[in-house]
Specification:
Layout (H helix, E strand, L loop, with lengths): L1 H12 L2 E6 L8 E6 L3 E10 L4 E10 L3 H10 L4 E2 L2 E6 L28 H47 L5 H9 L8 H9 L2 E8 L3 E8 L2 E8 L4 H11 L12 E8 L4 E8 L6 H7 L4 H19 L10 E3 L8 E3 L5 E3 L6 E4 L4 E4 L13 H4 L8 H21 L3 E2 L6 E2 L17 H10 L14 H13 L10 H9 L4 H5 L6
Antiparallel strand pairs: 1-2, 3-4, 3-6, 5-6, 7-8, 8-9, 9-11, 10-11, 12-15, 13-14, 15-16, 17-18
């Protein structure tokens, strides 16, 4: 009995040599290890960062003597524990070399929690900061845009009401929306409007055409029809009105232009805003004005002409334009008491960058009564654009003289007022339809200018306007004031009474 027991004890205590790989003592790459328990071979899933996938990893080695020589681990050799499959043996040395436990990968293996580096964290924080800043900036811009639009909506009705006593009509809105550059409606829209025009009644007739009151969708418009012999005037005026940045509150508002015909006749149309008060000539013929209204008429007239004369640089830009036919019949009076310059059939354009003066091929000439001395004496140099502007300023002086005559002032020591009868310039020295020779003799040879009544010096506005007109009709063109200087001089006058003045035309 005793020998048998000693033999079993010796067998248990003997050492077993096992093949090791991946689990060797001292972390050697492969080799053997000694154990008093058993050898093992295992397989498990391992995440490979380089391929971004799970791969199998096999390990060979010796079971530790703890826990009864790995007895429990080997008992579950037939199953996978935590993704690891283990097979044990102890029948001979290196018995685990050929053990190949089966590998069955999991279908849904959660990805390992990879450590986040400090560099990745900084990148993430930087990206988050940029996104947050962009979001805050977008919100701020939206708030600013909303505030700006709200203020624009509040400001625009006040401006329109103060100037016109009404909201923009549908036609005006169409023009404002379609002509962002200030050059008028698209041609297709113009032709559509022209076809829908309904003539109402004739309101004026001149040497070059007729002016009609018409309606477009219940809105009143003015339609200027040109005689067939005046095609050049229609073409030139249309071209000027469609110049970029031409629109201005003191220039007649252009709407559309078109040519109609049925084979036997041709009709050329120019459609503009309608101003029921009529021309400055008609208005002054039947009305008298206060000094404040004189100031408003003169200031708005000079504002429109200054915009016309000025060249605007940039993209888009506006050429400088000289009117060449300034007279009271070519100036309209608006309901708010301001002037609007019209009739551009003789206008001249000039672009300083190209140094080109565009003069229309038109046989039509200006109005002799308002012609400057250099035009009457044929001394004007058509190659110098400034000379056309100076000739305009001579005519401005005569128009201001017409305005001033109808401005009434109190008679000293009485409660009554006085003003002169309406009259055309040089009415007392030339016939009603003067010739070139008549005007040349009076203006150039005799050097006559319209007389200035003494009462004009008793009122600040009249005295200022009188001084301006004298400088405008000076015989030497280089001495004459510019339209901008006239505008600034009139603008310096006291505007308090003008702002409080009711806009009703007397």
């Amino acid at each position: 009995m005793a020998p048998k027991s000693r033999k079993k004890k010796a067998h248990v205590s003997r050492s077993l040599t096992c093949y090791c790989e991946g689990s060797c003592p001292n972390n050697v790459s492969n080799g053997t290890c000694e154990t008093k328990s058993s050898c093992f071979s295992s397989v498990q899933e391992v995440y490979d960062e380089t391929t971004n996938s799970y791969e199998e990893e096999r390990t060979y080695g010796c079971m530790p003597p703890e826990d009864n020589g790995g007895f429990l681990m080997c008992k579950v050799a037939a199953s996978q524990v935590h993704g690891k499959h283990i097979v044990c043996c102890d029948n001979e040395d290196l018995c685990n070399r050929n053990l190949q436990p089966a590998f069955t990968p999991k279908l849904t293996t959660p990805s390992p929690d990879l450590p986040v580096s400090s560099e990745s964290m900084q990148t993430f924080m930087l990206l988050g900061s940029v996104v947050m800043c962009a979001f805050v900036l977008t919100v701020v811009l939206l708030i600013v845009c909303l505030i700006y639009k709200r203020r624009e909506k509040q400001r625009k009705p006040r401006l329109i009401n103060s100037m016109c006593n009404s909201q923009l009509s549908p036609l005006s809105q169409l023009v404002e929306q379609s002509s962002g550059s200030g050059s008028g409606l698209p041609l297709l829209v113009q032709r559509t409007i022209a076809k829908q025009i309904q003539m109402v009644r004739l309101v004026g007739k001149g040497r070059y055409g007729e002016v009609w009151l018409a309606k477009w969708r219940d809105e009143r418009v003015a339609v200027k029809t040109f005689f067939t012999t005046e095609e050049a005037s229609w073409f030139r005026e249309t071209e000027i009105y469609q110049t970029v940045l031409m629109r201005h509150e003191n220039i007649l508002g252009f709407i559309a232009a078109d040519i109609k015909g049925n084979g036997s006749w041709t009709q050329m149309l120019l459609i503009t805003d309608y101003h029921e008060v009529g021309s400055l000539h008609d208005y002054l013929s039947t009305s008298v004005i206060t000094p404040q209204k004189l100031q408003l008429l003169a200031y708005s007239f000079s504002s429109g002409l200054a915009h016309l004369h000025d060249e605007i640089f940039g993209t888009p830009g506006k050429p400088a334009i000289a009117h060449r036919d300034i007279k009271s019949k070519n100036i309209l009076v608006k309901r708010n008491g301001q002037c609007a310059i019209a009739d551009f059939g003789l206008a001249v354009k000039y672009m300083s960058e190209l140094d080109e003066i565009h003069i229309a091929q038109n046989t039509r000439v200006g109005t002799r009564r308002y012609m400057a001395p250099e035009v009457l004496s044929q001394a004007l140099n058509p190659q110098q654009f400034e000379e056309f502007k100076r000739a305009d300023m001579y005519s401005v002086g005569l128009v201001l003289w017409e305005m001033a005559r109808r401005c009434y002032t109190p008679i000293t020591g009485t409660k009554t007022t006085t003003c002169e009868d309406y009259a055309l310039p040089y009415h007392d020295v030339v016939p009603s339809d003067p010739s070139f020779e008549d005007m040349h003799a009076v203006v150039c040879i005799k050097g006559f200018r319209p007389p200035l009544p003494a009462r004009w010096q008793e009122d600040d506005v009249l005295a200022t306007v009188a001084k301006i007109m004298q400088e405008c009709w000076h015989h030497n063109p280089t001495v004459r004031l510019t339209a901008l200087r006239v505008k600034k001089t009139l603008g310096r006058l006291d505007m308090d009474a003008l702002n409080d003045m009711p806009m009703k035309i007397v």
